[in-house]
């Protein structure tokens, strides 16, 4: 049996190039991070060979004594990392990623075509919370369920809870979803709980982006108010690529969440769990209980604030005026430039971030903002000083993007992309 270099030099070379790219660039994508060597070792282990459909002690295959031990350990660590009492909360650590975890919750709690309300995608929500356009039901969630998004108050950049309340009273959803992919503030869980209770809806939090911050108690705790909490494991939490679903053990609205969620994961939507991922997740969740992890998450937030303050000093408009978490959303429209052009220019300078729609945007393809996150570079050892310098680099990139845009005839994005030497760039 050969190692990768001998067995498949082509794939080895591609991995090496990607590794170089990761180490060369300033990684500012808010949903990404660098996991630890210990997690990578578990993920690259023999655990990937084993089939273990079912749950610990109740498997459909033999030979699972060590897998049972591992999954039970992972569950215990998941509850401990979020300070949850195992009598009140349970967890399923098998979801393959964040989107499947969310769909598993919908499958557990809803009937086809039941109504849900999540934050609108152009206002910072996630596709899996039910995005649709007037012409098309884009996400599977909106194909199988009836979705009415709630939105931000465009003047403040904060969730419009009054409007959510009014819409919920009319729409009568069975599920309200908190959580976002591009929202720099905490959710008001007590308010959302009240709204959900008034209409008899379940309340779920998708804490994918902020689960590391929740584990370290540097943002509000959703567990106190929600019935179900989902998360990815590879963002601020710094684990392997995967997902988890936490559920209350007490029945809610007459539903036994534990069996509903577990059955939705398997046999509902998944087959064999990815045991190598569960191994890596167990390692991550042990680390998530350490003082070093808490210190890291505090730095994620203080670094992000330093970045935000510097951008404000440089004259940028931030959605909601700042940040309480690991990301900032910059509204570039007052400058007359869009997020796609700025993303492209910064990419050429190995500064990796993403274009993002901002409230009030007309086009999702050429959105008016960029999203910048602090978790990955904080892992790489950046302090506030380096994040301030990063804001200055971004500012230089924006100036170059503005200059380049002025030099091209017209302002079409395709012309601009050709001008800066990327003729093969296609929009979405
Ligand atoms: N939920 C939120 C809030 C997210 O931001 C994301 C991904 O960015 C997901 C779910 C989906 O996770 P995955 O890409 O692992 O399916």
UniProtKB/TrEMBL annotation:
**What cofactor does this chain's UniProt record say it requires?**
pyridoxal 5'-phosphate
- Decide whether keyword Transferase is in the record: yes
Q: What is its EC number?
A: 2.1.2.1
Q: Which keywords fit this entry according to its UniProt record?
A: One-carbon metabolism, Pyridoxal phosphate, Transferase
Q: One GO BP annotation here?
A: tetrahydrofolate interconversion
Q: Name one GO molecular function term.
A: glycine hydroxymethyltransferase activity
Pathway assigned in UniProt = One-carbon metabolism; tetrahydrofolate interconversion
- Keyword Transferase listed? The answer is yes
Coiled-coil regions listed in the entry: none
A GO cellular component entry from the record = mitochondrion
Question: Catalysed reaction(s)?
Answer: (6R)-5,10-methylene-5,6,7,8-tetrahydrofolate + glycine + H2O = (6S)-5,6,7,8-tetrahydrofolate + L-serine
What is the protein's known function?
Interconversion of serine and glycine.
Report the family membership: Belongs to the SHMT family.
**What is the name attached to this protein's record?**
Serine hydroxymethyltransferase
**Full-protein interval shown:** 271 to 698 of 720
